[in-house]
Design brief:
mainly alpha; 2% strand; flat
Length: 351
């Protein structure tokens, strides 16, 4: 008889757990790559090079001279070409088109990588009925992400040729939420809990707070990216001639500074970095002396190391005035920290 594991309200053979976990981990890694490629698309100002959304028929890029000329002419009809890239050559257009096309193509690949195995596993009855709602929720989130991506692009096809930083941050937040949900489900399958009661101690709460802080910091980073706020005050630890820049709260009402003021948004990103680092350092210290499981201790240690590197990389990226390579590495570091924070919280809560 095949052994079964009762965990989180569902029961399945251990081999099926590993199979489904491997599938979802692959999808999570694709989402990870999608976020990084999206960051590169933003950093290279490529996101508005495709002015149509064809979710079903948009698999193939332009093929042949006439198709490329037609695609380029569509781009020329919109404000980014007219106000920013006037006189751009066809070869230059191809250079930005490739990033946005690759980003959209990867989104379609992720959709197929989730939907086709999901349907196959359902038909083969490898997914218990109690677990289907979670996977359907992930499917809905994935579809919503595609719609939000187009709404983001559409916001830049107007008089002001730049996407809304609100929609960009919403797009990023959905991607991070999908990534965390996928990873959490994988961890549920690989590290099943022996009983139905999750731990709720102080260390579990602290690791949960760290996860929320990391998630929030990434969203503030979305505001920084959406408003190009990393291209001002490119020194550290000061901003200009002091720690508090003069234009920190020049917008009225005051709360609009946290939404629209580039200086305030960059300052918030800096301050949150210190808070995140301090919280994770405290988690690391507490995990060493709290009788936690090996998974919990190792998770906290790796999380602290990754956070330290991410802070140093963020400072380097700022001082270097956000070159594409460093900007992409910084976004990669943010996703790694998010993944490790998810792992550590799960280890504390369920191990």
């Amino acid at each position: 008889m095949k052994s079964k594991t009762q965990t989180y309200g569902f029961s399945m053979p251990r081999t099926n757990q590993k199979l489904i976990a491997s599938w979802l981990l692959m999808v999570a890694l694709l989402v990870f790559a999608m976020v990084i490629l999206g960051g590169v698309t933003r950093l290279t100002n490529s996101g508005l090079s495709m002015v149509e959304w064809r979710p079903v028929t948009g698999w193939l890029p332009p093929i042949g001279t006439e198709a490329w000329a037609e695609e380029f002419n569509k781009y020329k009809a919109f404000p980014e070409y007219q106000k920013v890239n006037k006189g751009m050559s066809l070869d230059e257009f191809k250079g930005i088109f490739v990033f946005e096309y690759s980003h959209r193509l990867l989104g379609r690949v992720i959709g197929l990588a989730f939907v086709l195995p999901f349907l196959a596993f359902l038909l083969l009855r490898k997914i218990p009925a109690s677990h289907i709602p979670r996977l359907l929720g992930l499917l809905v989130l994935g579809g919503s992400q595609g719609v939000m991506g187009w709404l983001m692009v559409k916001s830049g096809l107007v008089d002001h040729p730049d996407v809304s930083h609100y929609r960009l941050t919403a797009h990023l937040s959905l991607a991070c939420l999908i990534f965390v949900a996928l990873l959490w489900t994988v961890l549920d399958l690989l590290y099943p809990r022996e009983n139905a009661d999750a731990k709720t101690g102080a260390l579990t709460q602290l690791s949960g707070i760290c996860l929320l802080l990391v998630f929030g910091q990434i969203l503030v980073g979305g505001f920084v990216a959406g408003l190009n706020a990393g291209f001002i005050y490119n020194e550290w630890p000061m901003m200009g001639e002091g720690f508090l820049p003069d234009d920190l709260f020049h917008l009225q009402p005051w709360y609009m500074n946290f939404l629209e003021n580039l200086t305030t948004i960059q300052f918030t990103h800096r301050m949150m970095a210190y808070v995140v680092f301090a919280a994770i350092f405290w988690l690391f210290l507490k995990s060493k002396n709290n009788g936690q499981s090996d998974l919990s201790r190792k998770g906290a240690a790796f999380l602290f190391g990754a956070t330290l590197l991410q802070v140093l990389l963020g400072i380097w990226t700022l001082i270097a005035v956000v070159p594409v390579t460093l900007g992409a590495l910084h976004q990669t570091g943010g996703m790694i920290v998010l993944g490790l924070a998810t792992f550590t919280y799960h280890a504390n809560k369920h191990s």
